[in-house]
Amino acid sequence: MTARGAPGTLEAEAVSVVLGGRTLVDRVSLVAAPSQVVGLIGPNGAGKSTLLRTFYRALRPASGRVLLDGDDVRRVPGRRLARRLAAVLQEAPGDFELTAYDVVAMGRTPYKRAFQGDDAADREIVLAALAELEAADLADAPFDRLSGGEKQRVLIARALAQRTGTLVLDEPTNHLDLRHQIDALRLVRRLGATAVIALHDLNLAAAYCDRVHVLDGGRTVAAGTPAEVLTPDLLAAVYRVDAEVTEHPRTGVPQITVLPE
Ligand code: ADP
Ligand code: MG
């Protein structure tokens, strides 16, 4: 892939989020250094999506700050932030008229003036991003009619077309088949972007993340390398499962097997 924004340092500084009188995220601090891939893990309702929403400014922290290269994201003008940070969210665009191409082309918006159409360079970037996700043949298909996995790949392509150095991804491997899961995470690594990724699959987190950050009930319960964090004790405490963790003989990566009751 061609040039993109420089990887940034993305940092949550004691971020709390309170909604409807509930503290959903409680003083969470996390740093993703340039080009680091940080996995955000934890059970359903732990606050992963809520924390990530503060990163791309869809939510305002009740206290604390989110910093990109030291700049409070709330103080960076929207277009400028969108050139530095792209997000792949779980909520897909709801516009039924859009083709997959149109959805990916939205990634070019931060580089345009009002009403400026796509130029040849934009088209090339959009088609390259679709091709990178093996979605070139979906370009003209109505986004609305794609399968869950196809939609997910188109949304990742949109973030790619945004050409940012920093990515926030909320369960990007959901709906993807095995190979596309691996391809998506490999792609993030190959881009050299700074990334914070909410992931459910702990084996994927162990294999592709430099660090993992565990949330439970809105609080940080552990953070460190996958080998430091993904221990049977932690998995028992957070997920209430009996798990065995071994080092994979060929990859050296921690391998988690959940044992039946
Ligand atoms: P995760 O992504 O880790 O599964 P979420 O961040 O989506 O968790 O949700 C964390 C908690 O916040 C959940 O209990 C959810 O029900 C609650 N929640 C999410 N959005 C709101 C909201 N707008 N108002 C009140 N509670 C919310
Ligand atoms: Mg979530």
UniProtKB/TrEMBL annotation:
Alphabetized Gene3D superfamilies for the sequence: P-loop containing nucleotide triphosphate hydrolases (3.40.50.300)
Q: Which PROSITE patterns match?
A: ABC_TRANSPORTER_1 (PS00211), ABC_TRANSPORTER_2 (PS50893)
Query: Pfam families attached here?
Result: ABC_tran
GO MF annotations in UniProt: ATP binding
- State whether keyword Nucleotidyltransferase applies: no
Which InterPro entries does its entry note? Answer: AAA+_ATPase (IPR003593), ABC_transporter-like_ATP-bd (IPR003439), ABC_transporter-like_CS (IPR017871), P-loop_NTPase (IPR027417)
Please report the stretch or stretches of sequence annotated as the ABC transporter domain. Answer: 10-242
* Protein name according to UniProt: ABC transporter ATP-binding protein
Q: Which organism was this protein described from?
A: Actinomadura sediminis
